[in-house]
Amino acid sequence: MDIGLLADNLEILIALLAGVAVVAAIFVVSWPYFVRDHLTERMVQVTNENERIRVRERNRLNASTKQISLRSEPKRLYKLIVDRLNLAGTEDSETVRMLRMAGYRGEGPIIAYLAIRQLAPLGMMVLAALYVFVILRLDYPLFVNLGIVMAAAALGYYAPPLYVKNKITNRQSSIRGSWPDALDLLLICVESGMGIEGALRKVSTEIGTQSVELAEELALTTAELSYLQDRRKAYENFAARTGLDGVKGVVTSLIQSEKYGTALSQSLRVQAQENRDMRMNEAEKKAAALPPKLTVPMIVFFLPVLFAVIITPAVIQMMRV
């Protein structure tokens, strides 16, 4: 009888468990239909937060007591020369891009570059003619003296582009050397919960002791993120001003993160490692190119001294004999 009662209780327990399982299954299946979808609200909150950050950064920049301008006004002489010679329409996008990569922004550097490009050949030609025909009075045929003058004029014509390209090379070298460290700082700021604007502003203040050029570009990017309506344009401007492949890769990651909402920390970590490897490869290339560069100085300066040290005692002995 006890066994029959136990069997009846077991059947009741199994029925209760089956009922609970059926109710739980129905609850799990119907749960998505009763829970509200907060994705739309979260997207609206993110959009509003970005707008609040943009307004806050704009107010902060406007309220700054010390107004620092990255643009320079054109000088009156250069402006007069450009207007008189009608050179305003001669600049192309390549010239503007080169000047921006060299750190010159605004209308002033463009006008100054166009004016100097016209004044430098004339000035070099006048100075060369003065030295050749008046001061030095070289005793060469006339066509040789004229060739010297024309060579000086050609040097004056090609000197401004060479100066700008040299400035671009030095600027890119400074940015390339500090870019992996800046990415590490940016990764730390992003993983700590900071927004991209605040992270870029923080990195720009910290990286200034290592690379002023990179700090300037990051600060300008932060300002453009606050003012421009299209945030992608601010990132693209940053990549165009630097002209570095490592910066372009990070900019692509930032644009994808803004557009698709992908995780930024892992991408920044990978980009930082890649840029660090690129910096190491550049150092290895310079180290590998050092022995060939030392060949000529060794032949010119070391070998004659070595021969003199070796041969001099023999010469002295021969003179004594």
UniProtKB/TrEMBL annotation:
InterPro entries: T2SS_GspF_dom
Compartment(s): Cell membrane
Keyword vocabulary terms for this entry: Cell membrane, Membrane, Transmembrane, Transmembrane helix
Membrane-spanning intervals of the chain: 12-35, 110-136, 142-164, 294-316
Major location category of this protein: membrane
Recorded topology in the membrane: Multi-pass membrane protein
Pfam families: T2SSF (PF00482)
Protein name: Type II secretion system F family protein
